[in-house]
Design brief:
GO terms for molecular function: transferase activity. There is one protein chain. With 400 residues, the chain is of the alpha/beta class. Helices cover 45% and strands 15% of the residues. Strand 7, helix 6 and strand 8 form a beta-alpha-beta unit. Helix 2 runs parallel beside helix 3 and helix 4 packs antiparallel against helix 5.
């Protein structure tokens, strides 16, 4: 007998990792042909789409700001009504904000288990990034509050899924007791180390023999976009090798910074959005090295996708993405969180036989990460939470 699963998240935006996670989960449910999935998200308009076993409910919600792709759920009455109407067997909260508090409160009334996925390490991504990592009194105070807040909201859930072991250990040290390691996955049929099917270098005017750096992600402050651009300009101006190019795929509030950079250099290409996974895989295959300037990622899905396509990744040591790097590559990563160190890491990595290494990377990633493997583990905990809830309800009924 199948179960009803309801996801609710405010992180559902085009090109984002949470949307990819939800989309892949829906594909998994379609293949299982047993369960039913309900998704509640903020949107431009209020509407619903029903394509059994998938049901999507969009609630009209404002953008966080004029540059953001994310919206904030304010119509909480509509969310409550939907939760009562759906009567899910389990609810998964995909963000730590007001909708999660509402879900926790409503689920208790409905006697439905709730799990959460720690998609965003918000104490670092938003609090410390906002204050500039200067360790000021205000930054310390807000960071302490955000740690307390994370403990309060996530300990209300039956389970909190965390994508890397290093982050799980950190959250446990904060007092979050219900954490479970559950990595994200990769579409192993699409993201493969084949030759590119499309010559995107030719289309974008990038020389065939150029050393192409690729970045895929939101153009936001917490993604360290400014440092990415500084790294590229440092390589372009001071490296003995004069063949560096940079391809950026993504959009966000810092889009004007990209436009300024393009005016300053004709070796930067920018694509705001790629909807097709097959097309995105070809971009990974077209690059020599994926560059990830972020230091606050919970997982870094693009890191796995790039390696699955045979394109190695360079980033910063001491981040949670380090858990995902195969072949011991983190020893080549930058050891200081600045653009010079990242540029030095790029220079070191390009001395390696990246193409040959990339094939081994892809093989290892395909063996360790797959959406099927991730979701099988996720369903195990779904059933455990549902079973525990049933036992509790039965005990209460017997006691009364």
């Amino acid at each position: 007998m199948g179960i009803k699963i309801c996801d609710i998240t405010q992180f559902y935006a085009p090109g984002g990792g949470v949307k990819r996670y939800i989309d892949e989960k829906q594909d998994y449910i379609r293949q299982k042909k047993e369960d039913e999935h309900f998704l509640i998200i903020p949107g431009e308009k209020t509407f619903s789409i029903h394509d059994p076993p998938i049901h999507i409910f969009s609630i009209k919600s404002p953008l966080i700001n004029q540059f953001s792709q994310h919206r904030i759920l304010l119509n909480l009455t509509e969310v409550t009504d939907l939760l009562h109407e759906i009567k899910a067997d389990i609810i998964e909260a995909g963000d730590p904000y007001q909708s999660s508090w509402l879900v926790s409160w409503t689920a208790k009334k409905l006697k439905v288990p709730v799990v959460g996925y720690y998609h965003s390490h918000f104490p670092d991504a938003y609090v410390r990034t906002y204050f500039g990592w200067k360790n000021s009194f205000l930054e310390k105070a807000f960071f302490t509050f955000s740690r307390w807040y994370a403990e309060e909201i996530y300990n209300q859930f039956d389970f909190t899924f965390v994508p890397t072991l290093s982050l799980l250990n950190l959250l446990r040290s904060w007092g979050i007791k219900n954490g479970v390691h559950l990595s994200l996955g990769v579409d192993t049929k699409t993201f493969t180390p084949e030759p590119p099917k499309n010559n995107y270098r030719l289309k974008l005017g990038i020389p065939r023999d150029a050393f192409l750096l690729l970045y895929v992600g939101r153009l936001a402050k917490e993604k360290n976009i400014g440092l990415l651009l500084k790294t590229f300009f440092f390589l372009q101006d001071y490296s003995s090798k004069k063949d560096y190019w940079l391809l950026i795929i993504g959009d966000g509030p810092l889009r004007n910074e990209i436009l300024k950079a393009i005016k300053a250099s004709n070796r930067i290409c920018w694509i705001t959005r790629v909807d097709s996974k097959k097309e995105l895989a070809d971009y990974y295959r077209s690059a020599d090295l994926f560059i990830h300037p972020g230091i606050v990622e919970t997982f870094g899905l693009v890191t796995i996708e790039s390696q699955a396509c045979g394109c190695p990744v360079v980033g910063f040591r001491g981040t949670h993405m380090e858990d995902l790097v195969e072949e011991g590559f983190s020893e080549y990563w930058a050891d200081r969180k600045d653009f010079r160190s990242l540029a030095e890491a790029v220079e070191k990595m390009r001395t390696l036989d990246l193409r040959t290494i990339g094939k081994n990377l892809a093989l290892n990633v395909h063996q360790k990460y797959s959406w099927k493997r991730s979701f099988e583990k996720l369903w195990y905990y779904y059933y455990e939470a549902i079973s525990n809830s049933f036992i509790q309800k039965s005990a209460l009924k017997y006691a009364s």
